[in-house]
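Lab meeting, item 3. Inverse folding demo.
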């Protein structure tokens, strides 16, 4: 953690957490809301499930989102690289 460490209180699924972090407060609140929303959605479908299991399932859902986004990002990078190579090739062709 950096020198700008601060304590930020967040609430997820009714439990308050006090975190020491150098992360931007708004970003941490947004992240905690995302986690909380995932947990609420899971709890809605299985109200008798223990909170720890809900947290693990939410973490798995969020990890899946991350992996899907990374895969999409990698695909887009490859497309851009391919288009740039084509563009460079076109630029190098002599004008007739």
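The presenter then showed the designed sequence:
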């Amino acid at each position: 953690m950096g020198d700008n460490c601060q304590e930020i209180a967040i609430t997820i699924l009714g439990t308050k957490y006090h975190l020491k972090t150098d992360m931007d407060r708004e970003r941490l609140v947004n992240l905690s809301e995302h986690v909380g929303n995932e947990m609420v959605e899971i709890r809605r479908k299985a109200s008798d499930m223990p909170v720890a299991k809900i947290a693990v399932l939410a973490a798995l859902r969020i990890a899946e989102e991350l992996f899907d986004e990374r895969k999409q990002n990698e695909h887009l990078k490859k497309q851009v690289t391919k288009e740039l190579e084509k563009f460079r090739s076109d630029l190098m062709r002599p004008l007739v």
